[in-house]
């Protein structure tokens, strides 16, 4: 489900909330990589409104090996360390740029 923000198309979210929801067809990143026989991803940019944790920690090492660089907007300070640890375990160097007075920021990772 995609939860729709009123008067803010940039505020739609996959995180469950009390906004109106619509059903949308999705696929996960692992399936997309395999189905499309992608051998290398030079740069992966993610802005998926709170679901970045689920995508990154569920990517297996053999798929993370295909990715050179990642930039993602994170939405939960409590989960950014778990994302960082998972990426570092898979040979990425990770840095954060936090937004002041916010739970969000940008994570940059590269091999």
Provide a descriptive summary of the structure in words:
- This protein has 111 residues and is of the alpha+beta class.
- Helix content is 27%, strand content 27%.
- The chain has 4 helices and 6 strands, in the order E-E-H-E-H-H-E-H-E-E.
- The protein has helices spanning 29-35, 52-57, 61-64, 77-89, and strands at 2-3, 21-22, 41-46, 67-74, 93-98, 105-110.
- A 4-stranded mixed beta sheet has the order 3-4-6-5, with helices on one face. A two-stranded antiparallel ribbon has the order 1-2.
- The longest helix is centred in the last third of the chain and has 13 residues, at 77-89.
- It is globular and about 40 Å long.
- The mean pLDDT is 88.
Gist of the model:
The chain has 111 residues and is an alpha+beta fold. It has helices at residues 29-35, 52-57, 61-64, 77-89, and strands at 2-3, 21-22, 41-46, 67-74, 93-98, 105-110.
Throw out a few tags for this protein.
single chain; 111 residues; alpha+beta; four-stranded mixed β-sheet; 4 helices; 6 strands; 27% helix
What's the topology here?
Blueprint: E1 2-3, E2 21-22, H1 29-35, E3 41-46, H2 52-57, H3 61-64, E4 67-74, H4 77-89, E5 93-98, E6 105-110
Parallel strand pairs: 3-4
Antiparallel strand pairs: 1-2, 4-6, 5-6
Series of H and E elements: EEHEHHEHEE
Residue runs with pLDDT of under 50 for 5 or more positions: none
- Strand residue content: 25-35%
Distance between the termini: 34 Å
Q: Based on DSSP secondary structure assignment, what is the total number of beta strands?
A: 6
Q: Pairing-aware structural class of the strands and helices? A: alpha+beta
Mean pLDDT: 88
List the strand order in the largest sheet: 3-4-6-5
Task: Tell me the major beta sheet.
Answer: 4 strands, mixed
Helical element count? 4
Shape: globular
Rg calculated over all Cα atoms: 15 Å
Helix content: 25-40%
């Amino acid at each position: 489900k995609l939860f729709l923000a009123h008067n803010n198309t940039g505020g739609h979210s996959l995180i469950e909330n009390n906004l109106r929801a619509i059903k949308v067809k999705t696929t996960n990143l692992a399936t997309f990589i395999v189905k499309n026989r992608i051998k290398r991803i030079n740069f992966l940019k993610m802005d998926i409104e709170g679901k970045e944790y689920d995508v990154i920690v569920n990517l297996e090492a053999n798929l993370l090996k295909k990715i050179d660089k990642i930039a993602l907007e994170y939405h939960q300070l409590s989960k950014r360390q778990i994302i960082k640890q998972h990426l570092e375990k898979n040979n990425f160097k990770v840095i954060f740029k936090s937004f002041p007075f916010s739970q969000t920021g940008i994570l940059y990772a590269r091999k």
